[in-house]
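step=predict obj=NADP-dependent 3-hydroxy acid dehydrogenase YdfG n=265
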Amino acid sequence: MTSSKKIAVVTGASSGIGSVYADRLAQRGYDLLLVARRGDRLQNLAAKLEQTYGIKAETRVADLEKETDLAGLEAVLAANPAISLLVNNAGIARLSPVTEAPVKDSLSQIALNITALTRLTHAVLPAFKARNEGVIINIASVLAVHAFPVSSVYSGTKAFVLNFSRGLQQELANTGIRVQVVLPAATATELWDTAGMPLTAFPEEAVMTTEHLVDAALAGFDQGELVTWPSLADAGHWDRYDAHRSDLFAATQTGKSAPRLAIPS
Ligand SMILES: NC(=O)C1=CN([C@@H]2O[C@H](COP(=O)(O)OP(=O)(O)OC[C@H]3O[C@@H](n4cnc5c(N)ncnc54)[C@H](OP(=O)(O)O)[C@@H]3O)[C@@H](O)[C@H]2O)C=CC1
Ligand SMILES: CC(=O)[C@H](N)C(=O)O
């Protein structure tokens, strides 16, 4: 893709949250590289966004669980200096007790939610560092900090996204590269068609629309938030949680057994 403008890459742009990110980033003037498996959907969206916003949108069909497709996309991201923003959005949920789920479901979630996100981040970072500029938006989930009996693996993958992003933010703190992690609660998307539990399991008032979700996440980005909880009214919840987490970590640095665990002599 040749472009005089900045290019935003959105993985999982063929539906749900990713398709709204594509729309909003096009509205902000970015050219786009849209990635997913369903090429027809990507092409329809690209054509619509080109017409609506006068930007250039290319598509790339890729199954990010597959080595050849992932390696191909890594090469594209590493080679194109116009790429300045990556939304690591593609993800799946397979909500089921581990004892009842085939191991391939666990591995699929790990491959897409963790491995692909990590590799694509590695792919863009050298050029971002060389230019001292770039944006990475990682889509985690409120389940990054909460596990249900059916979400062991999914919650684990999203906890990875949160901690990976938090570490990167510290690593890149003195650079021009920004990493935002977004933690959506239940959002009305096709994810629920294959998640193993229906969206109707949530009370209607607990479910966000994709438009509200992405607009709130981008408002958080514009306000300089590094960790954005789009549905959380009181941001102080996160500040208190994070301060407590930090205190907990510091309190573990004692070098000796906790008195309650000490073996009586
Ligand atoms: N919906 C919700 O309640 C919440 C969602 N999230 C997260 O939001 C992100 C987006 O999900 P959401 O919009 O809800 O779900 P959707 O199912 O609507 O979108 C998922 C996107 O990922 C793509 N995708 C799935 N598998 C692959 C694959 N193997 N290779 C490449 N692309 C793939 C899909 O496209 P295609 O099938 O064409 O490949 C689709 O574009 C995910 O990371 C999810 O975990 C977080 C919290 C809540
Ligand atoms: C699937 C999700 O990540 C969602 N945040 C949920 O609340 O279940």
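step=describe
The pocket of NDP (ligand 1) is lined by residues 12-18, 36-38, 62-65, 89-93, 112, 139, 141, 184, 186-187, 189-191 (CB under 6 Å).
step=end
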